[in-house]
Design brief:
Number of helices: 5
Structural class: mainly alpha
Order of helices and strands: HHHHH
Distance between the termini: 83 Å
Helix content: over 70%
Number of strands: 0
Oligomer: single chain
């Protein structure tokens, strides 16, 4: 792109501005969406991650690429400029991979925390269910002269141990 722009007489400032405002957003958008879809995310999940990460990534792009272009065009000899841009691209692509991986890990931690909270709510609901229905059985058992007994399920869910083995001496 810069070769064609230089032949048309565009200044370095104009070329960097076009690159930062037109080309970079498209490239970053495509990279983010393809990365998320490649990791098995649905389009809706990929778009959600894109909306979450796009603005911070573009801000960092504005901090990285304009100085990289200026340094490369003013301080690197013409015959080594391709190597300069390639080195900048290598650094930038590593940053993109790192930031996407960090964001994926953060979203996975949020999902697992939400799933854990959902399991706790289910366990609490099952304890309430056992508790709410236990007085009927306990009332009948008390009328027959027997002492009320908790079921192993109610004890294991209430304790959170996950096992259904309890001491049933009361039976």
């Amino acid at each position: 792109f810069f070769g064609m722009a230089a032949q048309r007489g565009l200044t370095l400032r104009t070329r960097v501005l076009i690159n930062s405002l037109v080309i970079d957003p498209v490239n970053i958008s495509v990279a983010m969406m393809l990365s998320a879809v490649n990791k098995g995310k649905s389009f809706q999940e990929a778009f959600g991650l894109y909306r979450e990460r796009f603005v911070p990534t573009m801000q960092n792009s504005f901090l990285f690429w304009p100085p990289a272009h200026v340094l490369n065009n003013f301080f690197v000899p013409v015959h080594l400029r391709v190597l300069g841009f390639t080195t900048g691209s290598l650094v930038w692509n590593n940053y993109l991979c790192w930031s996407m991986q960090r964001s994926n890990q953060a979203s996975e931690q949020v999902r697992s925390a939400q799933a854990g909270a959902g399991r706790e709510k289910q366990a609490a609901a099952s304890v309430r269910f056992e508790y709410e229905h236990r007085p009927r059985g306990a009332g009948l058992a008390a009328a027959a002269g027997a002492s009320p007994v908790r079921t192993p399920l109610a004890v294991s869910v209430a304790s959170g141990s996950g096992s259904s083995s309890t001491n049933n001496k009361g039976r």
